């Protein structure tokens, strides 16, 4: 797909100018922040989607596979997947159903909790997520579009936003293994 030609002005800067012109000065910076982050998310997700397309994976499916591959046993309770990915249980359930249908994970009863389900990575799921991770590392993560310093600063700023929103408490220097 050909990249569109750049616009002669930044539409988000123009939106901020309009906010200020309409007297919404208290909200102008926040509007610029929110719309800028949302546009950046669109740009990054487009790159991720294009990289994962040959693997027939959405980012949601990739995240579940990668999380299971990172776990010690290649399996986690459904509730742990929900908590770690910070998405609604229905989303994880429907994603897991598609991964089961495709033979990439199995859904098994939890060995200690009869009410819980365990998601288990299959060998074909492990092979696929490893290949997809290599592609994402090469095509997206190694060069996300910002310098290392800018990327680190942005991650730190967004981490403060996430912490203040209740995503997590003070992080440990090294997260414990799953």
TrEMBL record:
<feature type="domain" description="HTH marR-type">
    <location>
        <begin position="30"/>
        <end position="163"/>
    </location>
</feature>
<dbReference type="GO" id="GO:0003677">
    <property type="term" value="F:DNA binding"/>
</dbReference>
<dbReference type="InterPro" id="IPR036390">
    <property type="entry name" value="WH_DNA-bd_sf"/>
</dbReference>
<keyword id="KW-0804">Transcription</keyword>
<dbReference type="InterPro" id="IPR036388">
    <property type="entry name" value="WH-like_DNA-bd_sf"/>
</dbReference>
<protein>
    <submittedName>
        <fullName>MarR family transcriptional regulator</fullName>
    </submittedName>
</protein>
<dbReference type="GO" id="GO:0003700">
    <property type="term" value="F:DNA-binding transcription factor activity"/>
</dbReference>
<dbReference type="Pfam" id="PF01047">
    <property type="entry name" value="MarR"/>
</dbReference>
<dbReference type="InterPro" id="IPR039422">
    <property type="entry name" value="MarR/SlyA-like"/>
</dbReference>
<dbReference type="InterPro" id="IPR023187">
    <property type="entry name" value="Tscrpt_reg_MarR-type_CS"/>
</dbReference>
<keyword id="KW-0238">DNA-binding</keyword>
<keyword id="KW-0805">Transcription regulation</keyword>
<dbReference type="InterPro" id="IPR000835">
    <property type="entry name" value="HTH_MarR-typ"/>
</dbReference>
<dbReference type="GO" id="GO:0006950">
    <property type="term" value="P:response to stress"/>
</dbReference>
